[in-house]
Write a structure and sequence with these properties.
Helix 3 packs across helix 10. The protein has one domain. The chain is globular and about 50 Å long. The protein is mainly α and about 250 residues long. It contains 11 helices and no strands.
Length: about 250
């Protein structure tokens, strides 16, 4: 564990938390690829999950009245089903292969939103919700990036920003908590991860505060553009990380 990694953890955590506070997702999409430029990708994934979970509690509390259980429950069930396979992948996959997987997740997410920017579904489908949740849970555990499937699916039918955020947060918080248990059982939360997390947590709090202030000034129209920008910017970073990490 070098000072450079700790500085990177602090700075990237601030940016990631600000983005998450603004859109309800995007923490890992920012944190993992950029932090993996300075550190190994596996501990970057675990650290992202660890420090990205506490802000979800506050964010979900803020929009609790907008949560619709009928829309959240099927995705949440699917997410729980996907966690165990995701932890197994993270534990056994080669780090370089994991970086490629991370790159693929982010790039596909960005392209999907760019190609299909308008909502297309009138209402969510039960089977599709479970499948999307399963994919999200597996990606959450293996890459810390469970957001894109749920975000892409929810934004295809949800027109209201606060309900969009509420649905995502109501899925992400329980999934992240269960994922942390799985990561701990697998022995993936080590001393370096705990040190980096301790350094990053103050930055997460500061970033969440800044993001909340910015969110108050953002209307629905530019909201989708913000989501797209986050995904595209992070996809570029993760591609650089996969092709030529600097650690």
């Amino acid at each position: 564990m070098t000072p450079g990694i700790l500085v990177a953890a602090f700075g990237v955590a601030f940016l990631a938390a600000a983005c998450q506070s603004l859109t309800a997702f995007g923490f890992a999409l920012i944190m993992v690829p950029i932090l993996s430029l300075a550190w190994d990708v596996k501990p970057a994934v675990v650290t992202s999950t660890l420090v990205g979970t506490p802000p979800l509690i506050i964010l979900l509390y803020e929009v609790r009245s907008c949560v619709e259980a009928s829309r959240v429950a099927p995705m949440l069930l699917g997410s729980f089903l996907g966690i165990a396979p995701g932890v197994l992948v993270l534990d056994r996959i080669d780090p370089t292969a994991l970086q490629v997987l991370v790159a693929a997740v982010v790039i596909v997410a960005a392209l999907s939103l760019f190609i299909s920017p308008r909502p297309r579904l009138r209402q969510p489908s039960l089977l599709l919700s479970i499948l999307v949740g399963s994919l999200s849970g597996a990606l959450r555990a293996s890459t810390s990036m469970g957001g894109p499937p749920v975000a892409l699916y929810t934004i295809s039918y949800e027109r209201e920003v606060e309900r969009f955020r509420a649905t995502l947060l109501a899925v992400f918080l329980p999934t992240s908590l269960v994922t942390l248990v799985g990561l701990a059982v697998a022995g993936l939360i080590d001393g370096d991860v705990l040190i980096a997390s301790a350094v990053a947590l103050p930055a997460v709090a500061l970033g969440a505060f800044v993001g909340a202030r910015v969110r108050a000034q953002v209307s629905e129209r530019p909201f989708r553009a913000v989501v797209l920008t986050i995904l595209i910017a992070s996809s570029i970073a993760v591609l650089v990380s996969a092709v030529g990490p600097l650690n």
